[in-house]
C-alpha cells in the first residue's frame, strides 16, 4: 500500500513543482520529517528544508535534526538560530493563546525572511488530518505556517493531509527514516514554551528541558510506549526540606498519556516505581525543582498539553 502511496505522491509533487523550488519548515517531528523526505525524493536539492531553532527544542534536538537530515539523509538543510528573537518576543507574555500567537508570528517572520532569499514557488507542509480537524474546532491556535502562502505567493502542497499519526509513522518507516524519528512522540510546534506555564525565559525553559529529558529517558527505560510523556514547569513554588534546611522550590508536573490520534487521551497507569524514580531524578538532577506531581486527568476534560 505504501509503495503505491509514495509513488503517487512523489509523482504529484514532481508534476506540481515542475522545475521550480520548494521550501519546508522542518521541525524534526515525524510529520514534517516525512513530508520533507517525500518531497526530497521527488525534487532532490530543489527542496530547501528550513530548520528554525526557536530555543524551545528538547535536549540535543537541534544537533540531532542537523545530523539526521543534513549528514545522514542528504537534504538541503538551512539551519536558523533564532533563539534570542523568540525569547525577546515572549518577554512579559503569560497568556497561553497570546503565547502561541506570538510564537506563530515570530516563526512566520523568521521563515519568511529565509523563504524570500530562496525565492521558492511552493511550500510543502506536513499537515495531517487531526491538524485541520482540530483547528476547525478552535481549541488551541495550532502552530503552523498558515497565512504564509498568500503573503509570499507560495503554492501549498500537503502530501500527508489525509493521514493519521499512526499512518505517518508507517510511511516514515517505509521511507527509510531512522526509528528515532518514526517512533518519536508528538511534540507541539511551540515546543517547550507551552510547557513552561507563565513567562518564558531561557532559565525556565532550561529547567523544563532537563526535567523533560529525564521523563523521556525513564519512560523508555521502563519500555513503556505512551503517546506522549513529558514534564511541565508549573510556576508554583512549594516548601521542602534539604538536609535540615527549609527549601522553597519549583514544582514540575509529569504527564504520560495513551492515545490513538491525540484527539482524546487517557492518563497512563505508569508503575509507581517508575514515577518515583522520575521524581527522584528530577529533584536530584534539576536543583531548582523541589516537588514532582503526576497528572491523572484524561482528555477530555483536560487537553494533553497544559497550554
Ligand atoms: P492538545 O494539547 O490540544 O494536543 O490535547 C493534542 C496533540 O497535539 C499536540 N499539539 C500540537 N501539535 N502544533 C502541533 O503540531 C501545536 O501547536 C500543538 N499543540 C499541541 C500535542 O502535543 C498533542 O499530541
Walk me through this protein's architecture.
This protein is an alpha/beta fold and 307 residues long. The protein is 44% helix and 20% strand. The chain is built from 11 helices and 9 strands. The strands form 2 sheets. Strands 3-2-1-4-5 form a 5-stranded parallel β-sheet, with helices on both faces. Strands 6, 7, 8 and 9 form a 4-stranded mixed β-sheet that branches. The longest helix has 23 residues, at 96-118. The protein is globular and about 70 Å long. The chain starts with a helix and ends in a 13-residue tail after the last strand. Xanthosine-5'-monophosphate binds next to loops.
**SSE arrangement, N to C:** HEHEHEHHEHHEHHHEEEHE
Mean pLDDT: 94
- Tally of separate helices: 11
Bound molecules: xanthosine-5'-monophosphate
Please identify the structural class as seen in this structure: alpha/beta
Classify the beta-strand content into a percent band: 15-25%
Q: Which strand order does the major sheet show?
A: 3-2-1-4-5
Total beta strand runs = 9
For the sheet with most strands, the description reads: 5 strands, parallel
What gap, in angstroms, lies between the N and C termini? 37 Å
Radius of gyration: 20 Å
Helical amount among residues, as a percent range? 40-55%
Overall shape? globular
Return residue spans where pLDDT drops below 50 for at least 5 consecutive residues: none
Q: Which helices and strands occur, and which strands form pairs?
A:
Elements: H1 2-17, E1 22-25, H2 30-43, E2 47-53, H3 61-72, E3 76-81, H4 83-89, H5 96-118, E4 122-124, H6 129-137, H7 148-152, E5 155-157, H8 165-174, H9 179-182, H10 202-221, E6 228-242, E7 245-258, E8 266-267, H11 272-285, E9 289-294
Parallel strand pairs: 1-2, 1-4, 2-3, 4-5, 7-9
Antiparallel strand pairs: 6-7, 7-8
Helix pairs in contact: 1-2, 2-8, 10-11
The structure holds xanthosine-5'-monophosphate (XMP).
Residues 139-140, 142-143, 186, 188-190, 228, 262, 299, 303-305 line the site of xanthosine-5'-monophosphate (XMP).
Amino acid at each position: 500500500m505504501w509503495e503505491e502511496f509514495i509513488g503517487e505522491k512523489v509523482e504529484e509533487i514532481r508534476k506540481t513543482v515542475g522545475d521550480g523550488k520548494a521550501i519546508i519548515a522542518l521541525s524534526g517531528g515525524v510529520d514534517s520529517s516525512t513530508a520533507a523526505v517525500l518531497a526530497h525524493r521527488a525534487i532532490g536539492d530543489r527542496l530547501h528544508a528550513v530548520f528554525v531553532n526557536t530555543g524551545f527544542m528538547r535536549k540535543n534536538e537541534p544537533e540531532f535534526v542537523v545530523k539526521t537530515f543534513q549528514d545522514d539523509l542528504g537534504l538541503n538543510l538551512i539551519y536558523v538560530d533564532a533563539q534570542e528573537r523568540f525569547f525577546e518576543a515572549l518577554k512579559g507574555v503569560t497568556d497561553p493563546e497570546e503565547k502561541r500567537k506570538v510564537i506563530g508570528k515570530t516563526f512566520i517572520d523568521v521563515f519568511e525572511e529565509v523563504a524570500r532569499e530562496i525565492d521558492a514557488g511552493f511550500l510543502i507542509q506536513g499537515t495531517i488530518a487531526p491538524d485541520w480537524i482540530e483547528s476547525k474546532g478552535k481549541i488551541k491556535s495550532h502552530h503552523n505556517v498558515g497565512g504564509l502562502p498568500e503573503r509570499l505567493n507560495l503554492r501549498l502542497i500537503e502530501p500527508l493531509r489525509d493521514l493519521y499519526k499512526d499512518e505517518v509513522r508507517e510511511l516514515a518507516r517505509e521511507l527509510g527514516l531512522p526509528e528515532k524519528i518514526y517512533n518519536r512522540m508528538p511534540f507541539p510546534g511551540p515546543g517547550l514554551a507551552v510547557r513552561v506555564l507563565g513567562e518564558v525565559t531561557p532559565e525556565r525553559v532550561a529547567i523544563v528541558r532537563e526535567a523533560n529529558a529525564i521523563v523521556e529517558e525513564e519512560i523508555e527505560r521502563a519500555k513503556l510506549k505512551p503517546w506522549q510523556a513529558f514534564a511541565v514547569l508549573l510556576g508554583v513554588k512549594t516548601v521542602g526540606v534539604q538536609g535540615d534546611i527549609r527549601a522553597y522550590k519549583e514544582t514540575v508536573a509529569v504527564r504520560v498519556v495513551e492515545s490513538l490520534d491525540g484527539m482524546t487521551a487517557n492518563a497512563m497507569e505508569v508503575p509507581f516505581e517508575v514515577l518515583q524514580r522520575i521524581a527522584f531524578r528530577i529533584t536530584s538532577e534539576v536543583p531548582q525543582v523541589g516537588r514532582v506531581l503526576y497528572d491523572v486527568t484524561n482528555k477530555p476534560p483536560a487537553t494533553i498539553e497544559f497550554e
